[in-house]
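hey so u asked for the seq, here:
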Amino acid sequence: MRLLGTVLLGFAALSWGFAVSFQGGSTGFALAADGPADEKGFVSLFDGKTLAGWTGATESYKVEDGSLVCVTGSAGNLLTEKEYANFVVRFEFRLTAGANNGLGLRCPKLAKGNLHLEGTELQILDDSAEKYKTLQPYQYHGSVYGLVPAKTGHLKPVGEWNSQEVTCDGRKIKVVLNGVTIVDADLDQATVKGTLDGQPHPGLKRTAGHLGFLGHGDRIDVRKVRIKELP
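ran it, structure tokens below
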């Protein structure tokens, strides 16, 4: 009867989304809930209402329905007021057809300019669009622009929300898109034979800088931006 009760309880726990670990032949068990990623230590960068905490091309961005929106036809770099060195940043984004933007890492405070060179940029792009059919490998979504190609095929359809996590720890960058690791690279190793785009990237020498969204005139929506600083 004890065994039957334990088994029945195990099935019930599984049906609730728990992992059950039985210990020996006893009725003791440990429960580990399947839930969202651990948010301990993360701090919100966007309050869903204002651009408080952001600087740069604030005229090119607006807040709409709780999302940070890059205004169509208006380009520029929206940057955090604070600088970051090593960190994990998480956010959700939704693309419009053919949209092009970027996530700036360790950037100088430049409202305009090529932060893929002066800092480091991760591509944010609807790379399924017909106009991008001749992209270079380092230009697809999630790529470290000009330096490290990302694995493709993991974006959700245009108009749906994607989740992305980026880890910058020393010279290492890891990008997880919708639960799939699409970049896991060491910047020094990736550039030992030069950059893929043949351009100088002085921003690679930076060890800290601003985080930001680098607009190119296309609408994207961003929400739930939060960051955890690493030692």
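The longest helix spans residues 2-15. Confidence is low (pLDDT under 50) at residues 1-35.
lmk if thats what u needed
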